[in-house]
Amino acid sequence: MKILFVEDDLEAAAFLSRALKEAGHNVSHASDGEAGLHLAETEEFDVFILDRMLPKLDGLSLLKSIRADGNQTPALILSALGEVDDRVEGLRSGGDDYLAKPYAFSELLARVEVLAKRSAAPETETVLKVGELELDRLSHSVTRAGEKILLQPREFRLLAYLMQNAGRVVTRTMLLEKVWDYHFDPQTNVIDVHISRLRGKIDKDFDTPMLHTIRGAGYKLDAGEAD
User: Fold this and answer.
1) What is the pLDDT of residues 90-148, one digit of tens each?
2) What predicted TM-score, i.e. pTM, was given to this entire model?
3) What domains lie within the chain, and their CATH numbers?
4) Which residue intervals of the chain are DSSP H helices?
5) Which element (helix H / strand E) includes 97?
């Protein structure tokens, strides 16, 4: 499981990060809200663990920004504020669970694992739509503005993943792991080639591009905003 942990108490962060890693999980740590937001926007995680009181951007504001971008990764909020109103505010800000400090690591781990299992439920959405672009998983068909677009199997998987993450920057690492099943970078131009081919098919005959290269970050599919 890949976890984003945002906590400004470096001693507590080191302890919890080490414990999570010993439990077999991959942990990325950020010590303030802005750094946490950057990681959430540029990498893919299975679960977020967010401290509520953070410098630069507090945990609830961070979570609201993440949710506003369409990112529904499960989030566990940690806070010394444990009253009912505090928990309600955290959940209404987009949290999936709320754990008051101090807490037992065994309880935190159990809650994180439950959230991860919940998010890993089988994909039930068979038709994806982004603007005038539509992808049907069952018929394996793609259309834009009603016009059929023929894609190769890998191009179809690539487009489906981009559509699932529409409006978000998708990194090279995310594509390698989710589309090519690589958990390392083979240092080839396979992604660039497929992105180029896909762009030629979904954008070439239309006035407004949908597939964008975000220099230094990755790629983004949107509903068709002009560059």
Assistant:
1) 888 889 999 998 889 999 999 998 888 876 655 557 899 999 999 998 888 999 999 99
2) 0.56
3) 2-119 (3.40.50.2300), 127-221 (1.10.10.10)
4) 10-22, 33-42, 59-68, 84-92, 105-119, 153-164, 172-178, 190-202
5) strand 97-100
CB-based contacts of 12, cutoff 8 Å, min separation 6: none
**163: number of Cβ within 10 Å:** 19
How many residues belong to the chain?
A: 227
Q: State pLDDT tens for residues 73-85.
A: 999 999 988 788 8
Identify the residue whose tokens are 């998983």. 137
Radius of gyration of the chain (CA): 19
Using an 8 Å Cβ cutoff, are 6 and 62 in contact?
yes
| Whole-Å CA distances, 180 to 92, 153, 160, 170 | 36, 12, 13, 14
pLDDT in the model for residue 26: 92
Token pair recorded at residue 182: 């690589």
Q: Which amino acid is at 71?
A: N
pLDDT at 221: 95
Cβ density class 41-69: b for 16+ within 10 Å, e for less: ebebbbbbbbbbebeebbbbebbebbeee
